[in-house]
Amino acid sequence: MTPSLRALVACVCCFAIGCASATPPPATPPPQDFPTPRLKLGQADWDPPSGARVVIRPNGDIYEGNQLVLIIDTTGRIFNARRQPWAQLSEDGYVFGPDELSYGHVGPQHASTFDGDHLWLTIERNGQVTFLDAEGKRTPGGRWHGCEGPMLPTCTAVTHALALRRYLRPPSSAGSSAGNFLPELVFRLVVALVLGAV
Predict the structure, then answer these.
(1) What's the angle, vertex CA 54, arms to CA 48 and CA 59, rounded to 5?
(2) How many angstroms separate the CA atoms of 24 and 84, rounded?
(3) Quick one: which of 106, 87, 83, 101 has its CA closest to 159?
(4) Model confidence pLDDT, tens digit, residues 157-188
(5) With helix as H, strand as E and coil as C, how does the chain read?
(6) Is 198 or 100 the better-scoring residue by pLDDT?
(7) In sequence order, what are the beta bridge partners of 119?
(8) What's the CA dihedral at 157, 124, 51, 69 to 10 degrees?
(9) Which of 29, 87, 131, 185 has the most C-beta neighbours closer than 10 Å?
(10) Which residues contact 11 (CB under 8 A, 6 or more apart)?
(11) What are the φ/ψ torsions at residue 36 (nearest 5 degrees)?
(12) CA distance 89 to 32
């Protein structure tokens, strides 16, 4: 390999490393400079119409099947499975995400969308979950067990958080292909340059 080709390969590799390591700045955690609710934690189970059973454990861990997906505490803080701040409930029911994004509104039995324009879920006192679309069409959402009395607001908040998590989660295939595209392109370019010099 000639010195000029070696220099070109080194430049391409440095560019690739710089691009691959460039990550967006971390988001600001959800704010906590406002009064927060006092939520009751206990054992509760939700059997949705499809998918794995959801379990709230007394320590606030929230599982879908055998997988820890979220964590909630008595002050309405919600963490992801890596125990990083994900959302915060205010005392008056507003939900904030990172960088003070609006994540809707949660009441004792109802939750509304980001803009607060319409309800998107409700939980009856018997634990029955109902989802509503923008036109008000109602869809059964399974039933919670163990959400009687003071646990009902917690179950409503958890249902809202899980629905929000599904809504916000990007398709896994898109993320993986985008993440692998640049390293693969650089690898092919370097191989082509090296083989061309042989």
Answers:
(1) 155
(2) 17
(3) 106
(4) 999 999 988 887 765 544 443 344 333 433 34
(5) CCHHHHHHHHHHHHHHHHHHHCCCCCCCCCCCCCCCCCCCCCCEEEECCCCCCEEECCCCEEEECCEEEEEECCCCEEEECCCCEEEEECCCCEEECHHHCEEEEECCCEEECCCCCCEEEEECCCCEEEEECCCCCEEEEEEEECCCHHHHHHHHHHHHHHHHHHHHCCCHHHHHHHHHHHHHHHHHHHHHHHHHHC
(6) 100
(7) 112
(8) 20
(9) 87
(10) none
(11) -115, 160
(12) 9
Are 28 and 15 in contact by the 8 Å Cβ rule? The answer is no
Give pTM, 2 decimals.
0.71
The residue type found at 139 is: T
pLDDT mean over 44-53: 93
Kindly tell me the burial class for residue 176, based on how many C-beta atoms sit within 10 Å of its own C-beta (0-12, 13-18, 19 or more): exposed
